[in-house]
C-alpha cells in the first residue's frame, strides 16, 4: 500500500489540479426503510420508508470524487430542466463543481434504490433512449474546446447511456492532444465505442474480457497476459488498469503486465461507485505527476475506503491518510 508520506505529498499536488469530466451524469436516489410484513395484495415485502437521500451518480459521481479529494472539477453532461436535473445541479454546486449542460432531448437519468436494513431490495431506473443524450458533432467543439484547454486532464466517463459517441471521443481526444492534456476513459463494452491512443482506460475484469473479445471459460483463471496484449493491439492505450474486485488491480503498459496490486479493502459494505473512485483517483494521481504504480496504489487505498461505506460514496484526503496510516 502507498505510504502515509507519499499519499500526503500526492494529495498536496492534487489540490492544485483542475479536471474536466465528460459523460453520463445521473442522480442517485436512495429510499431507506424497513420491511417486517408481506403485502396482502401480492407476495412482496411492504417497505416502511424512513427517509430519502440523493447524491450524484455516474459521471457526476466521478466529479464528486474529484472534488472530495481537493481538486477543482467541471462536469459536462445532460442536465435536463426537470426535478432530477435541478436537484443534481444543486448537489454539484454545493461541492463547488461547475457544470456544462449539453444539448439533448432526454430526461435526467434517475436511479432509485430501495434499501432495507442495509440491503438493496431493488432498483428503479428512469432514463431516455441513448439517442436523446448524444451531442451533435457540430456542437461539440464550441461547447468543450475551451474547457479542455483550461483543465489539467479530461475524464471520459461512459455508463452506456448515449452521451459518449465515436465522434465525441474522437473530437475530445484531438482537442486534448493539441493541448497536451491527460485523457482517461472508463469504457463500457456494450457501447462498442471506437477509441484509440488514450492515456489510460480502467475496465473491470468482465469489461476487459468483453473489450478483448474473449469468451471466459467457466472456472478458468483470468487470461491476464492475453487480455492485456489484445487491448493494447486494439486500442493502443498507453496504460491499462483492470480493477479485479477482491483481487486488487492489474497494471499494464505497452500490452505487458507490469504489476498486480492486492486489494486494500479491509471491509466491504457496498461496491457502488468504487469504479468511479478508482477512475477519479487514478486520473488525479497521474495528472499530479505520479508514475502508474504509485497512482494505482493511491487509487487502491481510495477505493478501499469507499467500499467500506454504504451507498454511492466518496472519500476525503483525511480519510485516505487515516486509512493508509493503519
TrEMBL record:
Lineage: Bacteria, Pseudomonadati, Verrucomicrobiota, Opitutia, Opitutales
Domain of life: Bacteria
Transmembrane segments: none
Gene3D superfamilies, sorted: 3.40.1190.20
Keywords: Kinase, Transferase
Carbohydrate kinase PfkB domain location: 19-317
SUPFAM superfamilies per UniProt: Ribokinase-like (SSF53613)
InterPro entries linked: PfkB_dom, RfaE_dom_I, Ribokinase-like
Protein name: Carbohydrate kinase PfkB domain-containing protein
CDD domains: RfaE_like
Extent of the signal sequence: none
Amino acid at each position: 500500500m502507498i505510504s502515509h508520506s507519499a499519499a500526503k505529498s500526492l494529495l498536496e499536488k492534487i489540490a492544485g489540479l483542475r479536471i474536466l469530466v465528460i459523460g453520463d451524469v445521473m442522480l442517485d436516489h436512495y429510499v431507506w426503510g424497513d420491511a417486517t410484513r408481506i403485502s396482502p395484495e401480492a407476495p412482496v415485502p411492504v417497505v416502511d420508508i424512513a427517509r430519502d437521500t440523493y447524491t450524484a451518480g455516474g459521471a457526476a459521481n466521478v466529479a464528486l470524487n474529484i472534488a472530495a479529494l481537493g481538486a477543482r472539477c467541471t462536469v459536462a453532461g445532460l442536465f435536463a430542466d426537470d426535478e432530477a436535473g435541478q436537484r443534481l445541479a444543486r448537489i454539484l454546486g454545493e461541492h463547488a463543481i461547475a457544470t456544462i449542460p449539453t444539448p439533448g432531448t432526454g430526461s435526467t437519468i434517475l436511479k432509485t434504490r430501495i434499501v432495507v436494513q442495509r440491503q438493496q431490495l431493488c432498483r428503479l431506473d428512469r432514463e431516455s433512449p441513448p439517442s436523446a443524450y448524444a451531442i451533435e458533432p457540430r456542437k461539440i467543439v464550441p461547447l468543450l474546446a475551451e474547457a479542455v484547454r483550461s483543465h489539467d486532464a479530461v475524464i471520459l466517463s461512459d455508463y452506456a447511456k448515449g452521451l459518449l459517441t465515436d465522434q465525441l471521443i474522437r473530437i475530445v481526444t484531438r482537442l486534448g492532444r493539441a493541448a497536451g492534456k491527460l485523457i482517461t476513459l472508463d469504457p463500457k463494452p456494450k457501447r462498442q465505442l471506437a477509441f484509440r491512443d488514450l492515456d489510460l482506460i480502467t475496465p473491470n475484469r468482465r469489461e476487459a474480457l468483453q473489450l478483448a473479445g474473449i469468451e471466459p471459460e467457466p472456472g478458468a483463471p483470468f487470461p491476464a497476459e492475453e487480455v492485456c496484449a489484445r487491448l493494447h493491439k486494439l486500442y493502443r492505450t498507453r496504460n491499462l488498469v483492470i480493477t479485479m474486485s477482491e483481487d486488487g488491480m492489474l497494471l499494464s503498459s505497452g500490452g505487458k503486465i507490469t504489476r498486480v496490486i492486492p486489494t486494500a479493502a479491509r471491509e466491504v459494505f457496498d461496491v457502488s461507485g468504487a469504479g468511479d473512485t478508482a477512475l477519479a483517483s487514478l486520473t488525479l494521481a497521474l495528472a499530479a505527476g505520479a508514475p502508474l504504480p504509485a497512482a494505482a496504489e493511491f487509487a487502491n487505498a481510495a477505493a478501499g475506503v469507499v467500499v467500506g461505506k454504504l451507498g454511492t460514496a466518496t472519500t476525503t484526503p483525511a480519510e485516505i491518510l487515516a486509512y493508509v496510516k493503519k
